[in-house]
What we know:
By secondary structure, this protein is α+β, with helices and mostly antiparallel strands. The protein has a single domain (2-137), classed as Umud Fragment, subunit A (Ribbon), CATH 2.10.109.10. The protein has 3 helices and 11 strands, in the order αβββββββαββαββ. It has helices at 2-18, 95-98, 121-124; strands at 26-31, 39-44, 54-57, 62-68, 73-77, 80-83, 86-89, 102-103, 108-112, 127-128, 132-137. The strands form 2 sheets. A 7-stranded antiparallel β-sheet has the order 1-2-11-3-4-9-10. Strands 7-6-5-8 form a 4-stranded antiparallel β-sheet, with no helix packed on it. A hairpin with a 2-residue loop joins β6 and β7 (86-89). The longest helix has 17 residues, at 2-18. The protein is globular and about 40 Å long. Mean pLDDT is 76; it is low at 13-23.
Amino acid sequence: MAKIILVYLFSIxxxxxxxxxxxxxxxxxxxxxxxxxxxxxxxxxxxxxxFNDYVYxxxxxxxxxxxxxxxxxxxxxxxxxxxxxxxxxxxxxxxxSVCPLGEIxxxxxxxxxxxxxxxxxxxxxxxxxxxxIRIDRIERKM
Length: 142
């Protein structure tokens, strides 16, 4: 769903630019998954990634938070994965084959969602920086 909305909005901005509207270096993504706050996010491809930033994974089309940066450590204690002091439940042993324990190397990030059953780096591994696009949540003001 998010991919469809992303493509739709990007297409609208592309068409508007043909008629003299200014070109933009951002577009929008709408998240419907409970693993991060639902809502609209502004995507900007030219931003530096930091801990707790929301990111759009261009290879999988999902939105997560950066919860481990190069130099942080991934540990396993009592059946939990611990990254930067945050404990994550491990649903299966699959994590051991896709996400290595130890120091996070340069150029890759550990991504996680807020929901305890989130499909994140515990199950698809560390993600290369070139696949990530930083996004900012657009807060609704009432």
